[in-house]
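dude i think i finally got it to work??
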Amino acid sequence: MRLLTTTVTSLDMCEPPRTEVPPPPCGESLAVTRVRDIRLDSYRMLYRALGDAHHWTSRLLPDERLSREIHNDSTRIFVLLCDEIVAGWFEIEMRPALREARIVHFGILPAYRGRGFADYLLSKAIAAGFAEGARRLTLETNTLDHPAALPLYRKHGFRPYAKREVQTPAIETASRFAAKETT
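look at this
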């Protein structure tokens, strides 16, 4: 298994912005909705659609462990629907005892990028993170994530408070193997 080294940046904000970002003018119907008890195969599809390109591995778990992670009282999963089709999603972990929430995963599916959806969806994620009384909202990004991630988070008011280097397993997809074979 090939390991990749990445720099993880931890960010936080201690109060929500005064206003939410309006939906971008796109001519399509947009809606952000919470998905309760998401099916494991549906979750995995969303997770892999966003995460494979960025080597996300934290939710590549057997059914029982994945279900414990996403079907518990502290996890909230929301999707962005564009004309009834999932265009993006985010996952939040509520930590009421600490008066904190954490954006665990966030992203726009590749086919919907570049249309202003990330600003809108992140605004909704921030609102959801503070909706249940959190006084602090955190998230992490790393140098394997989309290059627009860190600037987007900072634009919305998140401030870095820690950095660390970690190693993560590389996700080798069939298309990556094919590319290696032809070069």
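The helical segments are 40-51, 63-70, 117-130, 149-155, 174-182.
im so relieved honestly
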